[in-house]
Amino acid sequence: MALMDDVIEWLDFCDNLVTEMKDSKASEYRIGLAEGIDMATSMLRDYLADYPEYVDPKEKYQKYKM
């Protein structure tokens, strides 16, 4: 499904953006913005969890964690 692929790609982009914003020398404004994006993507993930085609892009990082 093309739309679901686009949504998954957008979520992956947002995850990378949030990680980059939090890991860099960020101001309080940027950290707050990153937390807001993180909350919004989390809410979208919770909504998409019911769809069988949805695969969370954050899961690809889980295999590297110990």
What does this structure look like?
By secondary structure, the protein is an all-alpha fold. The chain has three helices and no strands. α1 (2-23) runs antiparallel to α2 (28-48). It starts with a helix and ends with a helix. The mean pLDDT is 82.
Topology (elements, then pairings):
Elements: H1 2-23, H2 28-48, H3 59-62
Features:
66 residues; mainly alpha; 0% strand; elongated
The oligomeric state is: single chain
**Low-confidence parts:** none
The rounded Rg comes to 13 Å
Total beta strand runs: 0
Shape: elongated
Q: Please report which band the strand proportion falls in: under 5%, 5-15%, 15-25%, 25-35%, 35-45% or over 45%.
A: under 5%
Q: State the share of residues found in helices, binned by percent.
A: over 70%
Give a short account of the largest sheet.
Answer: none
Global structural class: mainly alpha
Distance between the termini: 33 Å
What's the number of helices?
Answer: 3
Average per-residue pLDDT, rounded, comes to: 82
Order of helices and strands: HHH
